[in-house]
Every structure is written in C-alpha cells, then in structure tokens.
Amino acid sequence: MNNHKIEHIVPYRLYLIVLSGLILLTLISVGVTYIELANLTVFTAIFLACIKSVLVLVFFMHLKFDNKLLQILVTAVFVLIALVLFITFLDYNFR
Questions:
Q1: Residues of the domain holding 81
Q2: Whole-angstrom Cα distance, residue 58 to residue 90?
Q3: Is the model's pTM score more than 0.70?
Q4: Is residue 20 assigned to a domain?
Q5: In terms of pLDDT, which residue wins out, 41 or 5?
Q6: Is residue 18 part of a domain?
Q7: Dihedral angle, C-alpha 6, 60, 57, 63, nearest 10 °
Q8: What's the DSSP call for residue 62?
Q9: What crossing angle do the helices spanning 40-55 and 12-32 adopt, rounded to 10°?
C-alpha cells in the first residue's frame, strides 16, 4: 500500500496560510453564536465546520496528493453526510 514514491514538498508558508484560515473560521464560528440567526445558527456552524474539515483533509492530511479514487470516495462521503443532515433538518423544520 506504500505507493507514494514521489515526495511532495509543500512550503511552510502554505501551512501557515491554511492554519490562519482555520483560526479565522474558528473565530467566526464562535462569533456566530453571539448573533441571533434563528434557524440558520446551526446551519452556519455546520457549514463552517465542513469548510474547516475540508481544509484539514486536503492540506494537512495530504488528500490533495493522493490518488483520484480516494479523493472521489472522500467527496462521496461528504455528499452523503450533507444529504443526511439536509433530510434531518427538513424533518426537524416540518414537525
């Protein structure tokens, strides 16, 4: 399973930019809790968490450099989770 023969050199500057983005998104998600958004509060928190998890997967877990099949499978899992959450929110809103 060790088929990563090519080394990918990623500059530290990119990691620092992604880290800064993650910190900024965390601060935004904390700030959203102080704003009254009614039904959109939970949606906003989940949306920001999804963005942060995609950044971690792509850059820190090197999914960007992995094979295409794994990228497609991870994307499919995210789509499935989004679909389940969407159906759950629909059920919650129309009760």
A1: 12-93
A2: 30
A3: yes
A4: yes
A5: 41
A6: yes
A7: 0
A8: -
A9: 170
62-89 pLDDT, tens digit each: 888 888 898 899 889 989 988 998 898 8
* CA 30 distance to own-chain centroid: 16
Alpha-carbon gap, residue 82 to 78, rounded angstroms: 6
In order, the DSSP letters of 30-45 are HHHTTS--TTHHHHHH
List b or e across 16-47, with b for residues whose CB sees 16 or more CB atoms inside 10 angstroms: eebeeebeeeeeebeeeeeeeeeeeeeeebee
Nearest Cα neighbor of 46 from 72, 17, 37, 76 is 37
Phi-psi label, residue 6: left if phi above 0, alpha if psi -120 to 50, beta otherwise: beta
Rounded CA separation 58/66 (Å): 9
Is 5 within a domain? no
Please give the tally of structural domains in the chain: 1
User: Which bin fits 62, alpha (ψ -120 to 50), beta or left (φ > 0)?
Assistant: left
